Amino acid sequence: MVAAEARRRPEIDQPSLIPHIAEAKSQKYSYEVLFRSLQKLLIDTATSEIIHQHQDMIAFSCCVYDGGDEEKEMDAAREIGWRGKFTKRGCVIRPGIIRMNGKCPLTPLEVGLMLHGMGFSNKTAIFLASGKIYKAEKNMTSLLEMFPLLQTKETLASEEELAPFKNFSSRMAHVDYSICAQSEVFVTTQGGNFPHFLMGHRRYLYGGHSKTIKPDKRRLVVLFNNPRIGCAPMDQFYLLCFDHLSSLADNIPDLPCPPYHIVTKPGQLPVEFLEPSAAQKLVIGFDCEGVDLCRNGALCIMQLAFPDAVYLVDAIEGGKELIQACKPALESDHITKVIHDCKRDSEALYFQFGIKLHNVMDTQIAYSLIQEQEQEGKKKTSDDYNYISFVSLLADKRYCGIPYPEKEEVRILLRQDPNFWTIRPLSDMMVRAATDDVRFLLNIYEKMMEKLNKVSLWRLAVRSELYCRCFCLNDNQFADWSPLPPVPDGIEADVYVPEVDILSVLDVPHGKMGRVIGRKGSTIMVVKESCNVEIHIGGAKGPPDRVFIIGSVNEVRKAEAIFRGRMLEF
């Protein structure tokens, strides 16, 4: 089942298509001429939602909604379309399990309940994009009760206008596809190529702002597990949902998107950034984007978030000279760089530009230290040893409470084209993604600083420095890096001050990394839990054959012993 809200268009006088069809036949116009005419008629007439549910789709999915005679009818339909596919020896169809796994298309009733719950009123016009509907008289009744303004191709166009398309399933599907593609909202509730192609196509329409909704059927089926559920019993549930969402919205900060500037020359950056001084201390959000960003992966964009604007430093257009102009600021004690997980960014800056990133406040480390403060004296669980992602941090209502689905869109594009960040000029989506990665950081910084005590602030400074140099190992063993921050003055004598954190690097014999760290990193997890340390490996980006351990001296030594013991086993 597919639903979409068609774009509203001004009403125009639409002449009958019959003369055009006759003319097309006489002059041997292509099918495309007829299609464009019918498409315009349907889009101009249909005004809101689109749904479809094919009988063969339900048959192929092996989903049975009512059991009994309907199940036998579905068996017959499967044999017509896929003779022998579902009757092979050993083939067992379990519709209940298939449905609970989210593999069944939603029924018209369930789609209606979902749209109703999302706030679509009964004045919303529905366009039914479908072939033969499975038990239309029975299944469409509940949907019609909720959305009486239901339309189909047959009700919007005359038989004469549909005649060139009627007996060609691919042509009819083409009409449905084109209307769905141009809709304001597209909702897919089934699998298959049709919705997947549409979702991909719509990413490039309307400046990347086409609304597409893909329901989680595995979770929805739990709500819709009553086959006789109706609209009335769900109203109270929806009211509770809206009340809950409203309470969450009250905690979401009002953070308007600041203006952005694409920087290709040093002179386009603020003077206080280019010339840091003790008289004017700055706090900025910071991040980097590139092609497999690491010591060898090219740095393409460096984002700098100031309170009043975001600067996108274009390393491709500006070249090495532009990045070198930023070196004093990135190495300065007077500018605090707020970043989430700085290891790869620091590695790229160090090996590609000779910049030693300094005075960093890493929000990933800060989050972990706040968790330790809040759980002091409690036993740690396995989740406490995991590092929070930036998306999860933004979703935490204590700091932002903002969803960030665009991040996953960028990840998909990066998988399709690893050189995504090298494309020039920067597209609207690239600018938006780069800006969103830094514009919330200053707000998060302020809230985290309020929660961190003096000891945690010192540990944050030390560990952030260790993160910066973690993957920057060379022959001089970090000798050219600044000393780690000492224990600050003002910490009372009766306050327990933990041992200073250190970074240890273990060389692993070539080809033995997989055995040393264990299956799916099982040894790493054991070491984390028993030694209270952080463990990082270079992975595919490198550096290869090395394990990096961060923690207090005694805990690091214990972790080293465990790993060396694993090396001796092989």
From TrEMBL:
One of its GO terms (biological process) is nucleobase-containing compound metabolic process. The keyword Transferase applies. The keyword Glycosyltransferase applies. Residues 500-568 form the K Homology domain. Belongs to the glycosyltransferase GT106 family. Keywords: Carbohydrate metabolism, Fucose metabolism, Glycosyltransferase, RNA-binding, Transferase. This is O-fucosyltransferase family protein. InterPro entries: 3'-5'_exonuclease_dom, GDP-Fuc_O-FucTrfase, KH_dom, KH_dom_type_1, KH_dom_type_1_sf, RNaseH-like_sf, RNaseH_sf, Vps52_C. SUPFAM superfamilies: Eukaryotic type KH-domain (KH-domain type I), Ribonuclease H-like. Gene3D superfamilies: K Homology domain, type 1 (3.30.1370.10), Ribonuclease H-like superfamily/Ribonuclease H (3.30.420.10). Residues 260-453 form the 3'-5' exonuclease domain. SMART domains: 35EXOc (SM00474), KH (SM00322). CDD domains: Egl_like_exo (cd06148), KH-I (cd00105). It comes from the Eukaryota. GO terms for molecular function: 3'-5' exonuclease activity; glycosyltransferase activity; RNA binding.
